Amino acid sequence: MTADSDTVAARPEDLSRISRAIRDLHPGYFAFVMATGIISTGTFVFGPTWLSRLLLVVTSLGFVVLATALAVRLVRFRSSVVKDVRAPERVFGFFTIVAGIDVLGVRLEVAGHPTATAALAAVGAVVWLVLTYGVPGSLMLMREHDSVLGGVNGSWLLWVVATQSLSVAASALAHSWPTRADAFAPLAVGLWSVGLVLYLLLISLIMLRWLTVQMTPATLGPPYWILMGATAITVLAGARILALPATLPVVQATAAVVEGLSFALWAFGTWWIPMLVLLGVWRHVQRHWPLTYEPTLWSVVFPLGMYSVATFTFGKVAHIAFMEPISRFMLWVAVAAWVGVALAFVLRLLRAPTAEPCGSPADSLRAN
Question: Of 129, 154, 351, 365, which alpha carbon lies 20 to 30 A from 280's?
Fold first, then answer.
């Protein structure tokens, strides 16, 4: 019997609280890195500088802790990982690993560390390649049910977010290393294009699920905010492409399309915000679903921060003046959301240990 099977077979009370938290670590927990990193980027632009630096430290520490926990989970609790991989409502959460890596990398590029950005982007690209073919492949070839439509939720759009995060990283490296822009620019445009098509495909699946499967408070969770977050990071990726030298052949060939579609997606993402707020009111007020900490709440914070940064960046490159005040306002909305979720997380940690640790199956039900 392997060490993994020994550990998983052990009774929950035989595991320490930390071991249980690692065993039940939600696949989408790297959304914490994404949310904190993008708000650090936003405060780098608008200030205060001290807050940006503090959040960069928190982002880096969070990344190290989560990466360590993930490594331990892969070694000691492989069966739990396999269970997540086979769950269509959870498996796309693994794409937060890629997005978290790239958001941190891009923030480091802004701070003047392009080598670190390149190293992180390389790791993110490898993980993306594994996931971008492995996840849909497993759902098509190894699923346990005839249909996975019931498991479709907003977390599926993390595939788009991860793809566009690589596009942003490629544009950042093209900006930092102009002599290699001819290599990075086509990569940035190509990934942006893939992410755009994926968004159109996945949003169609989500709408199909909404119209064919009963909507319940349990299934209408925080990951649906990624409907807006995916448009926002696509807009940011498009803006970073438009900021590249216009003399690059791939920019000359695609600039008009990228700019037009980026504005359309910004408008669509803005349209989503009131809709998502109304869905949240329905869930928590009309249907009385308890508003407590769950790992996927970071999937609400990230879209708010990304919307702010994307709006500012696109408005600047497209010379649309009204976007700057919107982005400033949304940044502080994102900061307030981050503080609220962080306080809820701390209170959860300070509570007496229960049978349902952070990232437990109960959390996963709420995350569906």
Answer: 351
Structural contact between residues 46 and 72, judged by C-beta atoms closer than 8 angstroms: no
Determine the pLDDT at residue 214. Answer: 85
191: CB partners within 8 A, 6+ apart: 163, 164, 166, 167, 170, 237
pTM above the 0.85 mark? yes
Closest CA to 181 of 130, 269, 134, 243: 243
Please state the CATH superfamily assignment of the domain spanning residues 3-367 in this structure: Voltage-dependent anion channel (1.50.10.150)
Question: Over the stretch 316-354, which tens digit does the pLDDT of each residue have?
Answer: 999 999 999 999 999 999 999 999 999 999 998 888 555
Complete DSSP assignment for 63-106: HHHHHHHHHHHHHH-HHHHHHHHT-TTTGGGGHHHHHHHHHHHH
Produce one character per residue of 115-132: b if its CB has 16 or more CB atoms within 10 Å, e if not.
Answer: eebbebbebbbeebeebb
Is the Cα torsion angle 230, 80, 346, 40 positive or negative in sign? negative
Look-up: residue for tokens 């950005």?
A: 117
- Name the packing angle between helices 323-350 and 31-46 (round to 10°): 140
* Domain definitions of the chain by residue range: 3-367
Percent helix, percent strand, percent coil in the chain, to nearest 5: 80, 0, 20
Q: What is the Cα gyration radius of the chain?
A: 20
Alpha-carbon span 4 to 57, nearest angstrom? 33
Token pair for residue 163? 């793809």
